[in-house]
Amino acid sequence: MNSVERLPRDFFIRDVLDVTPEILGKFLVVRSANGVLNRFSVTDAEAYRGSEDKACHAFKGRTPRTEIMFHKGGHLYIYLIYGMYWMLNIVTGEENNPQAILIRGVENFSGPGKLTKSLGIDKSFYGEDLVLSERIWIEDSGVKPVYKTGPRIGIDYAGDYWMNKPWRYYLINK
DNA sequence: TCAGTGATTAGG
DNA sequence: CTAATCACTGAG
Questions:
Q1: A117 Cβ within 7 A of any nucleic strand B atom
Q2: Which candidate in A47, A97, A132, A155 could, as Cys together with A20 as Cys, close a disulfide (CB 3.0–4.6 Å)?
Q3: pLDDT digits (tens, 9 = 90+) for A114-158
Q4: Nucleotide nearest to A153 (CA to C1')
Q5: What is the CATH number of domain A9-171?
Q6: CB of residue A35 closer than 7 A to nucleic acid strand B?
Q7: Domain boundaries, chain A
Q8: Model pTM?
Q9: pLDDT tens sequence across A16-42
Q10: CA of A81 vs C1' of C4, distance in Å?
């Protein structure tokens, strides 16, 4: 199987600011409807750090939607935005330390809403465990990512201080 | 620049 | 129950 290369729990149980740059260049593996495995290199991601980050959905506390972010790292946090797009997030850190990585882009697909639509990721993936799931996980690629950082997108409501944190990480030149 | 679209949330 | 909000996208 592919369990040899699959990233283990330890990878995800670290601070989101350490995990986010490292997930760049790694493979997001998704099983399609016909059972075929597809691999996509992660190109663009953002860190959300609930314990202090005003832009993080978990900042205001535990709700049914944000519940999974309070669990240990490796699970998926999925939510619908603007009534149309599913957002794919990977929970990181220890239990009760809500953090997550928004997957903003993968190879051949730019934009968090477009990539979930293309990969068939929806609400049914909420809470899925990347360490155990048979239909979605992350694999090491052996690639050492060369990346840049910048402000996160679409979080004006969080105010200048949090808006300007350079917590978006993206691969340079594809 | 701006509308589409509906789950989620806080509040009465 | 109501109403506001929204980690986006594509058209113009």
A1: no
A2: A47
A3: 999 999 999 999 999 999 999 999 999 998 999 999 999 999 999
A4: C7
A5: 3.10.300.10
A6: no
A7: 9-171
A8: 0.96
A9: 999 999 999 999 999 998 999 999 999
A10: 14
